Amino acid sequence: MQSNEYIQFFDGGIEPKLENLGGKGASLVTMTSAGMPVPPGFVVTTAQFDAFMEEAGITRHIHQLLADLDPEDMGQVDKVSAAIREDICSRAVPQALRELTVGAYEALMSRFDAPVPVAVRSSATAEDLPDASFAGQQDTYLWLDGVKAVTEHIRQCWASLFTSRAIIYRLKNNIPNEGLSMAVVVQKMVNARVSGVAITMDPTNGDRSKITIDSSYGVGEMVVSGQVTPDNIMLDKVTLTVISEHLGDKHAELVPVAGIRGLVEREVDAERRGRRSLTDAELTAVAQMAKRAEKHYKCPQDIEWALDTDLPDGENLLLLQSRPETVHSSKPSVPSSAATGGYFSGLSPAPAGPAPGSPTTAAGPAPSSASGFSLGSITAALLKPSF
């Protein structure tokens, strides 16, 4: 299957455009084109979302609901958000569009000896912009198996464009809803042994001669959501020598378990908690990848990376996302003692969650069944029909 107006493969050879692919999707296509080690996948473009919305005839209703909405009136915002998301999730997707998505999923699966799990990730047209930080505002679903789960969660990503948090952010930052659209990334899931983030500067003071790396065991969502305290290492950007190092507690990891569809939270044993999660060689490789991304984009980058258990050493470091650093460099300097907790890819740490064994998100307990682990505002209270 070839890329088209509604589906664009990362390696499809079509120029990435923000208005078609959203911030995340455009970045993944750009990085793939630049020869960076990105897990394969495709983007359900904004054209498909727009066509669905037009067919459903609900765009005008959405604009009416959002008109003159007070971002300080949380009760009304929640009510409007729920109404919009229910509207999106209750409408049928045109059969021709659904068939294109199913064909793209089957084409992706054909690249592997056996079906592999995928991540389904929101990619809004207003995210990852140089003057805005939308990280984590829309939904991401991990470790999904089968076309039914994938198509169902694409719809949920569409609906997450109108979570209360996203609506309030746009209102407070004067970002218009007219022309707003959503692409969705479908990407091979990485079986992460270790993962984390890297920022090509010192986030406490904006010093661009440094690289700061956070790393922990398992899938990286526990790092970016603040559920674990990762290792935090600062390196000199030129020599790649370690300047400072703080070992995090790394008390838990999200990992796949044989026979279970999805991810589970598992306690990390004392021996692994007591040592750095990256070897010296792996640390250097992550720093080099971050430098490469910064050189390509010509500005400080905030990257997400992972070491894939299923790939051999030397080929297992994968780049999951790279976006302009927009948050930490503008903050006041933080005393070095505060660095122990690490810096979570420009995201605010999540509030304290329940006891170990219950993965959580900003919206509450995360599903660990076939519905997939969800990061972001989950609309689980809504009944979502099949795609």
List the helices and strands and how they pair.
Blueprint: E1 7-9, H1 18-33, E2 41-44, H2 46-56, H3 59-66, H4 74-89, H5 95-109, E3 118-124, E4 140-144, H6 147-159, H7 164-172, E5 182-188, E6 192-199, E7 210-217, H8 221-224, E8 231-236, E9 242-246, E10 252-256, E11 263-267, H9 270-273, H10 280-297, E12 301-308, E13 317-324, E14 360-361, E15 364-365, E16 373-375
Antiparallel strand pairs: 1-2, 2-5, 3-4, 3-5, 4-16, 6-7, 6-12, 7-8, 8-9, 10-11, 12-13, 14-15
Could you explain the architecture of this structure?
By secondary structure, the protein is α+β, with helices and mostly antiparallel strands. It is built from 10 helices and 16 strands. β12 (301-308) and β13 (317-324) form a beta hairpin. α4 (74-89) runs antiparallel to α6 (147-159). The chain is globular, with a radius of gyration of 20 Å.
Using only CA atoms, what is the Rg? 20 Å
Q: H/E series, N to C?
A: EHEHHHHEEHHEEEHEEEEHHEEEEE
| Structural class label | alpha+beta
Biggest sheet descriptor:
6 strands, antiparallel
Count of individual helical segments: 10
Using DSSP, what is the number of strands?
16
Beginning-to-end CA distance, first to last residue: 21 Å
On the 0-100 scale, what is the average pLDDT? 83
Which strand order do you get reading across the main beta sheet?
Answer: 1-2-5-3-4-16
Q: Work out the helicity level.
A: 25-40%
Low-confidence stretches: 128-136, 332-387
Strand content: 15-25%
Shape call: globular
